[in-house]
Amino acid sequence: MRTDSEIKSDILEELAWQPNVDETEIGVVVEDGTVMLTGVLDDYRKKVAAEDAVKNVRGVKALVGDIQVKYGANYQKTDLEISKAIVKAFEWNTAVPEDEISVEVRDGWVNLSGEVDWAYQKDAAKRVAENIIGVKWINNAITIKQSIQPADVKEQINKAFLRSADIEANAITVEATEGLVKLFGTVHSIAEKKAAEDAAYLSPGVHIVINELEVID
Fold first, then answer.
1. Domain boundary residue, one of 69, 87, 104
2. CATH code, 131
3. pLDDT, tens digit, 9 for 90 and up, residues 168-193
């Protein structure tokens, strides 16, 4: 079992390793494997990069992100400018069915809604929006259409786990009911937990993934 001080030390090193993140701008608190990040950054992409870096550290069981995003005067954008930029970016990304997605922006906070066929389309929309200057936070409320039976969903997810080099498939149990998937079992990092969740979302017909995987050392 790794100590909180060991985990914190690795987190600080991982943040320092990120080319677009200044670790001195981020506060790190670790308690029983749960990590809280605090601070103020000038770019939403830096916030995402910092949180992703923490998830890769062994021993991290949960992440509470409290980093705020405040843009400098040269990068201030109106909600209309942000909305237009997101819609334009959707048009250039073949993974995003822009006609199926609505964008609402209030004070830099982005709400994405609509219904798409695949979870990867929902995730792609969020990733595109993350790269738009002026975005402070994203609520991805896009839903997934139901298209196949629960038994088929479970089978496809299990096969995806077996194909993945990042997931220990034998330690994960999958339950599927009408577009809802629950994951049980153990993994060795938040990154592996997220990889399992992402693999589940890639199955057609999956609306929601309840990820109850436990992170163990």
1. 69
2. 3.30.1340.30
3. 778 888 888 877 888 988 888 888 88
> Tens of pLDDT along 58-107?
889 899 888 988 887 777 889 999 999 999 999 999 999 999 999 999 99
d(CA 38, CA 52): 14
> How many whole angstroms from its chain centre is CA 14?
18
Same domain, 183 and 161: yes
> For residues 34 and 66, is the Cβ–Cβ distance under 8 A?
no
Tokens 């792609």 map to which residue?
Answer: 124
Query: Model pTM?
Result: 0.61
β-pairing, 180-187 with 208-211?
parallel
Q: Which two tokens stand for residue 21?
A: 């993140």
SS3 category, 159: helix
Rounded Cα distance between 2 and 169, Å, is 24
- Helices vs. strands in the chain: H and E counts, helices first: 6, 11
d(CA 183, CA 146): 19
- Provide the CA 163 distance to its chain's centre, in angstroms: 21
